[in-house]
Amino acid sequence: MTGLENKIDKSKLPCHIAIIMDGNGRWAKERGSHRIFGHQNGVTAVKEAVEGAGELGVRYLTLYAFSKENWCRPQEEINALMDLMVSTINSETETLIKNNVRLLVIGDIKSLPESIVKKLNEVIERTSLNDGLTLIVALSYGARWEIANAAGRIAEDVVAGRIEKEAIDETLFSKYLLTSGIPDPELLIRTSGEFRISNFLLWQIAYTEMYFSATLWPDFRKEHLYEAIIDFQSRERRFGKTSEQLNCD
Ligand code: IPE
Ligand code: IPE
Ligand code: MG
Questions:
Q1: Domain ranges (residues) in the chain
Q2: Of 30, 32, 145, 240, which residue is 20 to 30 A from 101 by alpha carbon distance?
Q3: Which one, of 179, 189, 222, 228, lies nearest residue 46 by Cα?
Q4: Minimum-distance ligand to the CA of 77?
Q5: Which ligand is nearest to the CA of 138?
Q6: Judging by DSSP bridges, how do beta strands 134-141 and 102-106 pair with one another?
């Protein structure tokens, strides 16, 4: 156990951590290599984050792996990322099962290559009864797309008489999102020194604590996760109330 891990209060773990895994391209560039080399090395960091979260007892971990906007990248990079996803799913499935991890995917799955969809569905099915960490991979994901999609489906249900317009509130709206049933993230980590959200979980992060790290994603290790959690635990989450109100609850 590292010194840092000891500083974590296990009774106050964030229930759901979301990570914007950024900086693979710059990591490769620093080494005079192609961006794809950065993505390949990012897989080690993914394993560290999943293992670290699972070992601590975090319930949900969402990883932003590919955005809807990332489809605009050079075709060669997209192909390499898709190949990397297939090889990673293949090599990691047994470890996920062994570690009691349940896999879920959020995003515009239909836009992904058929081979990936098939493999993902297989692993989702094989891990569906696992009750350790729930790992949610955001693939071809865009928050505005998700919200617009939810609004469209709510409209359909109103028109068809399945729900009353008056029943639409925040709770109902959440149920039409891809994260239905999953608690909102309590901690959002973004690596690589960028201070933006890049169309990730816009609805769900209304009261999420943000943690920005300068570390480039391929360098991310369990210790970086611990640092983020320790920082999270030092904050006072007020949800609109005053500090005094919280302290006399
Ligand atoms: C994150 O790293 C991985 C994906 C978005 C797929 P980047 O590829 O965005 O790396 P930088 O930001 O260009 O360094
Ligand atoms: C966000 O990173 C998407 C993922 C990490 C998958 P980007 O690198 O695509 O974000 P921008 O373009 O810098 O905002
Ligand atoms: Mg980036």
A1: 11-142+185-236
A2: 145
A3: 222
A4: 1
A5: 2
A6: parallel
